[in-house]
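Hey Z.,

So I finally got round to the flavin mononucleotide thing we talked about over coffee. Here's the setup:
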Amino acid sequence: MLLAYDSLTGNVRRLALELAGQLGAAVVDVRTQAPAHEYLLLTYTFGCGQAPDSTRNFLDQHSPLLRGVVASGSYHWGNNFARAADVIAARYGVPVVAKVNKGGTAADRVRVLTWLREHNRYGTLD
Ligand SMILES: Cc1cc2nc3c(=O)[nH]c(=O)nc-3n(C[C@H](O)[C@H](O)[C@H](O)COP(=O)(O)O)c2cc1C
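And the result:
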């Protein structure tokens, strides 16, 4: 399972690289790279509860390999907190693995790592 991430100010990028380091998984930057295998998408929420255009463009091309979504947001967006995860999950029929504030907490990372280990169906994380 790859970790495909989209990040504007660095929160999601830091989270993705931290998770990848712990798992030995490969990362894909959705702005510049394409996935070779199935992936967990990590993205952020923009506009008013939307996924960023860069994530939408990536999914337009690579949604068949999408297996789950993590979205970052900020608590002060209230009902729209990390809503990009809900939008993407509903559109593509994949689970919301986590919704995190900014770069996420240690508990968020455990949650995502647990999901990744349970869904590592090929026995490799690259
Ligand atoms: C213009 C703008 C709109 C945003 N809209 C939302 C939003 O609707 N909901 C939310 O939870 N966070 C929203 N955020 C917060 C970001 O999703 C949050 O800071 C996230 O951690 C950014 O990830 P990144 O650092 O990887 O780019 C918004 C941020 C900006 C700058």
